[in-house]
Specification:
With about 425 residues, this protein is an alpha+beta fold. The chain is built from twelve helices and 21 strands. It is globular, with a radius of gyration of 21 Å. The model has no long low-confidence stretch (mean pLDDT about 95).
């Protein structure tokens, strides 16, 4: 098939416009880079919006703000309009309390606005499908990305690339090494209720019906995590099921995960009998917590993360407990961070090994499963996205578009200029 040359030459192309990719694209453009962001969906935000998990955590650690910058600006702008209530970060509470629940339509629109304000070329409904790579001096170099458009395949060129795809697609296609084990964390599918609560008699009726269905194997406990109907309604179907044993980095397995996710919600609806229509909508896909982890120059271990290890090239903070979801009803393996400990992310964990002009940011950053289960959350992804873009901008301006050997102080200065907190 003929591939059309778009004729556009970019400084930086960002693949994926979730939490990490959004912040990366805005930072790159604000730094004066000619920037494009690719997103396969027609809406930005990824897990936060398209997939419906609208809890953004955590910007604060031990009552002190540790992540700010473009991600926090996004939150504040939503908050000013009443679309992102910020909890009191000075109180002692279990960690879910500190999440900021954004209004999904408003959040997606705000991302559109901030990207446009920065001057980013917004390429929604366009998927990367292939990467063209050259090689010199023992290193690979990403030359172009091939994208799918309504007009057919097109080629885009850039000096630097940032893989914020979540699954590490761009990196894997470019020949990067990665880890993606046989055992992966389960996914979750979001669904929505028409109402905010039920009277006690109706709730008891539905709970009894669901218990019977579970006893007869018409409903799996992992479909609803054994929760009562008022708890399901209270969280509006958010983060309340486990869709296990699927790999989102494999198209066949991802398709099966999406089918099973819808089947799980349908089992809940059927078990509710005449009340099944209380569930009114569902996310278009099952959101998977873990797929590829791209191998970079540094590999973050769980021990490093929970001990808040300091790296010479620490570039941003992260904060969340180790949070490894396990199959079905096995629960979550957690390690909570001790008071005062704030984990850091080194730039070398975002610099893809063996490729000289590619960074990763977000869920596919380099580390082991346990560390990844913590730094994969949205606020940390926002910080990584902004950091990767600042590094890419400095690489273009000062280092001939090569990711290694950049002036670390210049990268940190650029981040601070745009509101980020740098370790």
């Amino acid at each position: 098939m003929k591939i059309k040359d778009s004729g556009k030459k970019y400084d930086i192309i960002v693949c994926g416009c979730g939490s990490a990719g959004f912040c990366a694209a805005v930072q790159a453009a604000r730094a004066g880079m000619k920037t494009a962001v690719l997103e396969r969906h027609g809406m930005p935000g990824g897990i936060m919006t398209v997939y419906g998990n609208n809890d953004v955590a955590q910007f604060y650690a031990h009552h002190k703000q540790v992540i700010a910058g473009i991600g926090w600006e996004f939150i504040l702008r939503l908050n000013e309009k009443g679309f992102a209530p910020i909890p009191d970060m000075s109180v002692d509470a279990p960690h879910p309390y500190y999440g900021i629940h954004v209004n999904i339509p408003a959040a997606a629109h705000m991302m559109d606005v901030m990207l446009a304000e920065a001057g980013v070329d917004i390429l929604y409904n366009r998927s990367a499908v292939e990467v063209e790579v050259s090689e010199a001096n023992g290193m690979k170099h990403v030359d172009d990305v091939i994208i799918s458009t309504k007009d057919g395949l097109a080629r885009l060129s850039a000096k630097m690339f940032i893989d914020a795809s979540g699954d590490g697609d761009l990196s894997a296609w470019a020949g990067a090494r990665y880890e993606c084990g046989d055992t992966l964390q389960p996914g979750t599918i979001r669904y929505y209720f028409k109402i905010e609560g039920l009277d006690e008699d109706t709730a008891r009726e539905i709970d009894a019906a669901m218990t019977r269905a579970a006893g007869e194997n018409r409903l799996l406990k992992s479909d609803y995590m054994g929760a009562g109907i008022n708890r399901l309604i209270g969280c509006d179907g958010n983060n309340i099921n486990h869709i296990s044993n699927f790999n989102g980095a494999d198209s066949d397995s991802k398709t099966a995960a999406d089918i099973e996710g819808r089947a799980a919600v349908n089992r809940i609806m059927e078990s509710m009998g005449r009340h099944g229509n209380l569930i009114s909508n569902i996310a278009p896909e099952t959101a998977l917590r873990e797929t590829r982890r791209i191998i970079c120059d540094h590999y973050i271990t769980c021990e490093e993360y929970v001990s808040a290890h300091y790296y010479p090239d620490s570039i941003c903070n992260s904060f969340y407990p180790i949070d490894l979801h396990r199959e079905g009803m096995q629960g979550i393996y957690q390690i909570f961070l001790k008071d005062g400990q704030v984990p850091m992310i080194p730039l070398s964990a975002l610099t893809v090994a063996d490729i000289d002009n590619l960074y990763v940011a977000g869920r596919c950053a380099s580390g082991d499963r346990l560390a990844n289960s913590a730094y994969r959350v949205k606020a940390s992804c926002m910080a990584m996205g902004q950091a990767a873009a600042a590094a890419a901008a400095v690489a273009v301006k000062q280092n001939n578009g090569i990711s290694r050997g950049c002036d670390l102080d210049a990268i940190k200065s650029l981040l601070r200029e745009h509101g980020a907190i740098v370790p």
